[in-house]
Amino acid sequence: MFYEKMVLILGFLHYFTGWTGVLAYLGVLRSKFRLLRPEILWLVFPLVILWALQYSRSGVIAVYSARFYWGWLLFYCVFLAKPVPFGFLKKLLLILAVYTILEAVAVNTFLDPRSLPNFPGSVGAKQHFAAPGNYQRPYSFGGNATVTSSLLVALLCYLLPVRAVYLLSTLAIFLSASVTGIIAYVFSQLCIAKKYLIKIGVARILLLLLVFFLIIFLNRSFFDRVLYKLSFKYLFLVLKIKVGEFQHILSKASFCDLIIGRRINDPRSLYGFGGSAFLGFLKFNGIFGVIFFFVFTCLNLSRKILLPASILIVASFHYPAIFSLPGQVLFGLLLAEGSNEAMFKTFKKAIDQKKGD
Description:
This protein is mostly helical. Helix 7 packs antiparallel against helix 8. The protein starts with a helix and ends with a helix.
């Protein structure tokens, strides 16, 4: 169990160090592939064929594509044998939420965000840094405000914590000032049972709202930013941009590109779809890769992980929530949990049938 916990921690530390993610990938060396369900195992073969075809067209650079877009498969195998305990995950969520809040306070008071390792370099990255007097979003463990808030929402839906962990996680999500994260949070809360919301307590929610509005009062640009991004004007603008990008991909692609993905000439081109990660996935993995992704995901879905996994997938149509290294770790963990639940139900059904006989 210690080994799986370390893989999880190393993955979430990646954007602070730049190298711990590589160590997290090595966790696959301890994976027990024999635990893969037969229908899942058969799916591996067409994926290997896809990778082989990409390698024949792009050479060693294809390895970057496999790592970026399919790295979550390695973590799926890691967590398949020994799921991480809920108690540890709740502690991790608390730490991540507290750090995000502290970073939000620090970069808006006394700390220059350019000095933090989880922010992009200041050269050619002006859009990541707020002008003096405006609200600076925390990038935290996701290396991006949208990715961080999406991962926090997914963890919140999966773990269903109460009291302090819930309140601090909610505050961290709002301080990220990501419309994707805020919409995902509101939607998830509407989907969760009323009993859970009652358990949190009305008084605590009111206290949280008081703190939130105090932040708005102290920094008006925070409110202006969130309000603008929640407007139909901004949402339609984003939609128009993504439709244009999709049309551009289709217009430049050959039949072969559409089926197995475009040839990769430069590894940096993989990260050029920051605002529309799944379009990049389609461009470099083709229709074949998209079909495999959704079939594999659906085969591992369970009622418990349906909402958090769906949030990560939808968020990835904007920024790389799944393809960032912490996102890969979390998505792999969720699918492994879904697979283990399916295996348990299969064994239980077989035992019940045997008793009936």
